[in-house]
């Protein structure tokens, strides 16, 4: 039986009566997966497999040491996992995050001509497994790297929740140097992966005149340039396209051309050295984000009882149904700060136009201005982590801290 | 040429596009488009990646020597999967079914669980940098005793428009790759086998037809030679010639090797910068080059310029390798003075390098980085000449000679496509797969069942119009009329500029039915079809030619014509039939069946004589 085999063993088997021989890879769905001499994998009945010879212990090639040019500026790469740092497990077929930051340098040799790097693996997770506790660790690691002299910090991250992490770090950290989040939409094992261009553009941005938290990702479907998005104004807008990341209600704060790696910053971008390094890493984790939908039961709102904060992504200008307003009022009366944002994503909340909005205001809801729901959530976590006076919390939530609120809405989307 | 004595061995890979509704891994139609219909374009770079076994494939590594930007044209019939911006859909079951039908026809063994693999191809023809391919069945037999090793289901690559621009309409169309063992020993064997496999594929009725829908890769070696894979031979008639020319190339390369070894030839280790020597040159290529490098090949004089295939020399082979560095080619002393390089310049080059008469010098001109890469390639290929025939992937040139493309890829270029789940071929599924009637059998049956002559039967069976012919016969149309219409009439009309592609099968059938019902004469078919193709409704087109001449009218016409020429008829007797036929047809064409006219005439003549 195939349990006796280990990966790399040479195995003979029968494929509906036709003899085959191949390298045993794994057992999957009750079938033995063999790699034939042609490179093709096939699944065969494990009962027909017999051992030809044990795996001779083929030497795994030793990774080449990454050479660093000491004359180049020093950067920190902090790896959290995600597609950009992922590797296929060919046995299970799943994509997992198991690259170290050194592996990234090895996989993207072009990085070594931009700077020298100190690499740190903070986590090796897919981004849906990210937690506020890891955001805090991340902010501390970035803080330590900058204090240690890093000219810029690159954070490799899964794209699905990268916007949350970038906004969370924006609030927790005052940074005089660029902190650039980067990911990839197509896995590193394919020749067409966007990881090389994104990573090189992120490194160029990390060496630029920027002085805030940004996300560097493909701006178009071409391999032509990366946009630099403000950490609190960016959202993943497509499940799979490489230009999924877009700034909302403001233009990107910069761009990095490829392959020239020329960096251009907008007038809006905070410049290098504009802030003094500081870390305020407290977060209130008992905060939620709720998308209202037609017919939503008030019980769902009530489920957030005991939470210190709740962001609602309401309809249009910022509404929930009349039937939910009582539950919202009860939450607020019990001490929960409720912030209203819009599931429109573009545009500003205004609860003074329709009756339900006025009722929400009367109940004590905070208008979330033009904040993205996820940036409002991380902000609420940070504000509640650092401030206990309810009025001060309301004031801070309505105040622009890290570019998450724009005082005026410019034309267009 | 005694190919058996030469130790010729050949195998073929046949790539045939399948005629499915949707592509292999997305839901786009399998429609080919005109490039001017494209709705968008984008560009990308590709980078070689390490395989699951931790190696970079040598063919992929070579493609990476020059970082190239690839452009792609998109259409309203292509989607994000072709753009490499969305994970693939599950494998198209219709395509798998056709592959299994073909497998069954060759008596192959299907694999129990099909795994989709990624085959690295980074020449730009796949936006992802790999081609998805899956082994479906193994171990088939050919009537001549040959062996089919495997049948794979693959996605078609994007078609090159020009340079590094590709069109995405073709990318992802399902195709089967049928690989034979190296079981052929003469050029004619190879061609015959390709013809047979092609016939079997067409027998399914589910493969695409037309130029470019079937391509053959041919693997050839001779004793002491090496396996060479020649890609993309589209014309069946050229296959034997390609094999002959490859055998000739390998023989000549072996002869060059023997000569070089006898001369104790060696490749110079040094690369010489000779840019300054050509400061005042009249050669336009050398004049604009930023750097000119020279490599000395000791003992190679006369060999670099020796022809190894019609129009191809060892120098051409070296030049192909140098092109990988993004250069146009090389100059070598076997061909100089030429191309604006003077005899004096050659002499001073030889003097400067201190080379002897039996040495050859290769010049590489261009920008510095590319020429350094080029010099390395020159030494590499020149060294291979000392070993004989390198293993290579080659592309076919016009007439059947070939040029180097890249090294033969290894298994290292294949790794699992983890975004597509394996597909089980269950016993129930396999048992349900039917075997189509082979076109060769069909042709024989048309002869016996329908009384078609052998040539016509063969023509119909192998024609793209076979489904139309079958529909017509099933509808009760006489096989001869159906065959002549779908083969000859439509072809002739097309040649005369009639838009026959606008004719729907149902319209053609309606016209043939009208002939069978004797509503119109069969002579009227071309005119009626011409009318329909021009936009006349079918009923109107038929109506315009219907009921043209009753039996009574025909009899009257025949009587008049015979009576007018009664002397002639009495003199010639039945031999008057031919000349009079023409006269009657002038009046009756398109209104009465010619057979009927002939019969009426015969009766009238025999009545009067």
UniProtKB/TrEMBL annotation, chain A:
NCBIfam families: asnASE_I (TIGR00519), gatD_arch (TIGR02153), PRK04183.1 (NF003217). It comes from Methanofollis tationis. This is Glutamyl-tRNA(Gln) amidotransferase subunit D. The gene is gatD. Signal peptide: none annotated. It catalyses: L-glutamyl-tRNA(Gln) + L-glutamine + ATP + H2O = L-glutaminyl-tRNA(Gln) + L-glutamate + ADP + phosphate + H(+). Allows the formation of correctly charged Gln-tRNA(Gln) through the transamidation of misacylated Glu-tRNA(Gln) in organisms which lack glutaminyl-tRNA synthetase. The reaction takes place in the presence of glutamine and ATP through an activated gamma-phospho-Glu-tRNA(Gln). The GatDE system is specific for glutamate and does not act on aspartate. Belongs to the asparaginase 1 family. GatD subfamily. The active site is at residues 83, 159-160, 236.
Automatic annotation (TrEMBL), chain B:
SMART domains: GatB_Yqey. Pfam families: GAD (PF02938), GatB_N (PF02934), GatB_Yqey (PF02637). The keyword Cell division does not apply. GO terms for biological process: glutaminyl-tRNAGln biosynthesis via transamidation; translation. One of its GO terms (molecular function) is aminoacyl-tRNA ligase activity. Its EC number is 6.3.5.-. It is an enzyme of class 6 (ligase). GO terms for cellular component: cytoplasm. Residues 467-605 form the Asn/Gln amidotransferase domain. InterPro entries: Asn/Gln-tRNA_amidoTrfase_suB/E, Asn/Gln-tRNA_Trfase_suB/E_cat, Asn/Gln_amidotransferase, Asn/Gln_tRNA_amidoTrase-B-like, GAD-like_sf, GAD_dom, GatB_C_1, GatB_Yqey_C_2. Heterodimer of GatD and GatE. Allows the formation of correctly charged Gln-tRNA(Gln) through the transamidation of misacylated Glu-tRNA(Gln) in organisms which lack glutaminyl-tRNA synthetase. The reaction takes place in the presence of glutamine and ATP through an activated gamma-phospho-Glu-tRNA(Gln). The GatDE system is specific for glutamate and does not act on aspartate. This is Glutamyl-tRNA(Gln) amidotransferase subunit E. The gene is gatE.
């Amino acid at each position: 039986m195939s349990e006796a085999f280990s990966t790399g063993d040479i195995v003979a088997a029968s494929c509906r009566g036709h003899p085959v021989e191949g390298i045993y890879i794994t057992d999957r769905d009750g079938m033995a997966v063999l790699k034939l001499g042609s490179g093709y994998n096939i699944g065969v009945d494990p009962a027909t497999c017999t051992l030809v010879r044990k795996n001779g212990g083929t030497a795994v090639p030793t990774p080449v040491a990454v050479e660093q040019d000491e004359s180049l500026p020093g950067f920190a790469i902090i790896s959290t996992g995600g597609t950009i740092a992922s590797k296929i497990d060919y046995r299970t077929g799943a994509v997992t995050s198991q690259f170290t930051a050194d592996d990234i340098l090895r996989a993207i040799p072009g990085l070594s001509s931009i700077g020298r790097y100190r690499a740190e693996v903070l986590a090796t997770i897919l981004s849906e497994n990210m937690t506020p506790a890891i955001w805090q660790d991340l902010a501390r690691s970035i803080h330590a790297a900058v204090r240690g002299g890093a000219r810029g910090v690159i954070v490799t991250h899964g794209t699905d929740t990268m916007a949350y992490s970038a906004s969370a770090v924006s609030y927790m950290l005052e940074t005089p140097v660029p902190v650039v989040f980067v990911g990839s939409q197509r896995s590193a094992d394919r020749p067409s992966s966007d990881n090389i261009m994104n990573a090189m553009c992120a490194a160029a941005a990390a060496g630029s005149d920027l002085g805030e938290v940004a996300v560097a990702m493909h701006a178009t479907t071409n391999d032509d340039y990366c946009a630099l998005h403000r950490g609190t104004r960016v959202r993943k807008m497509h499940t799979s396209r490489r230009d999924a990341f877009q700034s909302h209600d403001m233009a990107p704060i910069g761009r990095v051309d490829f392959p020239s790696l020329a960096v251009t910053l907008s007038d809006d971008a905070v410049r290098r050295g504009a802030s003094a390094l500081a870390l305020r890493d407290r977060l209130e984790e008992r905060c939620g984000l709720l998308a209202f939908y037609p017919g939503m039961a008030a019980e769902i709102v009530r489920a957030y009882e005991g939470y210190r904060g709740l962001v609602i992504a309401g309809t249009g200008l910022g509404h929930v149904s009349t039937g939910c307003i009582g539950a919202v009022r009860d939450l607020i009366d019990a001490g929960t700060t409720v912030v209203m944002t819009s599931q429109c994503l573009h545009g500003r909340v205004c609860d003074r136009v329709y009756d339900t909005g006025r009722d929400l205001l009367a109940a004590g809801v905070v208008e979330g201005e033009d904040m993205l729901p996820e940036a409002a959530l991380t902000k609420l976590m940070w504000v509640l982590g650092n401030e206990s006076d309810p009025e001060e919390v309301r004031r801070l939530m309505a105040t622009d801290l890290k570019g998450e609120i724009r005082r005026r809405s410019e034309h267009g989307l | 040429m005694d190919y058996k004595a030469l130790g010729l061995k050949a195998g073929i890979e046949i790539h045939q596009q399948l005629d499915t509704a949707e592509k292999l891994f997305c839901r786009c139609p399998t429609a080919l488009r005109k490039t001017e219909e494209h709705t968008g374009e984008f560009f990308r770079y590709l980078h070689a990646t390490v395989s699951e076994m931790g190696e970079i494939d040598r063919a992929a590594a070579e493609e990476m020597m020059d970082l190239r930007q690839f452009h792609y044209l998109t259409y309203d019939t292509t989607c994000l999967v072709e753009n490499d911006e969305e994970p693939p859909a599950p494998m198209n079951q219709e395509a798998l079914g056709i592959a299994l039908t073909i497998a069954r026809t060759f008596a192959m063994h299907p694999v129990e669980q099909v795994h989709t693999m990624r085959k690295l191809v980074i020449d730009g023809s796949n936006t992802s940098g790999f081609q998805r391919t899956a082994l479906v069945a193994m171990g088939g037999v050919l009537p001549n005793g040959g062996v089919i090793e495997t049948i794979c289901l693959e996605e078609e690559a994007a078609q090159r428009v020009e340079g590094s621009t590709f069109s995405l309409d073709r990318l992802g169309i399902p195709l089967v790759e049928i690989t034979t063992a190296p079981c052929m020993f003469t050029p004619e064997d190879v061609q015959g086998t390709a013809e047979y496999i092609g016939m079997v594929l067409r027998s399914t009725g589910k493969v695409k037809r037309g130029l470019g829908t079937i391509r053959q890769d041919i693997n050839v070696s001779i004793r002491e030679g090496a396996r060479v894979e020649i890609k993309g031979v589209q014309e069946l008639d050229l296959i034997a010639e390609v094999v002959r020319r490859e055998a000739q190339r390998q023989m000549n390369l072996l002869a060059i090797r023997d000569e070089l070894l006898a001369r104790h030839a060696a490749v110079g280790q040094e690369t010489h910068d000779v840019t300054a020597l050509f400061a005042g040159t009249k050669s336009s290529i050398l004049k604009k080059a930023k750097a000119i490098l020279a490599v000395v090949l000791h003992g190679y004089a006369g060999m670099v310029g020796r022809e190894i295939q019609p129009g191809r020399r060892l120098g051409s082979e070296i030049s192909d390798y140098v092109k990988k560095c993004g250069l146009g080619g090389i100059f070598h002393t076997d061909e100089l003075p030429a191309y604006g390089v003077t005899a004096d310049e050659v002499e001073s080059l030889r003097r400067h390098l201190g080379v002897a008469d039996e040495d050859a010098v290769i010049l590489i001109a261009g920008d510095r980085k590319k020429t350094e890469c080029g010099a390395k390639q020159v030494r590499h290929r020149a060294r291979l000449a000392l070993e004989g025939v390198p293993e290579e992937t080659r592309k076919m040139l016009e007439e059947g000679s070939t040029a180097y493309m890249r090294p033969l890829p290894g298994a290292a270029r294949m790794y699992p496509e983890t975004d597509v789940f394996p597909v089980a071929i269950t016993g129930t599924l396999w048992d349900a797969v039917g075997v189509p009637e082979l076109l060769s059998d069909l042709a024989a049956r048309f002869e016996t069942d329908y009384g078609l002559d052998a040539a016509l039967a063969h023509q119909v069976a192998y024609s793209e119009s076979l489904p139309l012919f079958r529909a017509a016969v099933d509808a009760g149309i006489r096989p001869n009329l159906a065959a002549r219409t779908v083969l000859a009439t439509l072809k002739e009309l097309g040649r005369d500029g009639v838009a026959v592609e606008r004719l729907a099968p149902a319209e053609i059938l309606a016209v043939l039915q009208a002939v069978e019902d004797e509503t119109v004469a069969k002579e009227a078919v071309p005119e009626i079809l011409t009318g329909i193709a021009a936009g006349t409704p079918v009923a109107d087109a038929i109506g315009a030619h219907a009921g043209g001449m009753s039996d009574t009218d025909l009899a009257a016409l025949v009587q008049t014509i015979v009576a007018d020429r009664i002397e002639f008829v009495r003199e010639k007797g039945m031999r008057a039939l031919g000349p009079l036929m023409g006269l009657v047809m002038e009046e009756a064409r398109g209104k009465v069946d010619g057979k009927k006219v002939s019969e009426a005439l015969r009766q009238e003549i025999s009545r009067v004589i």
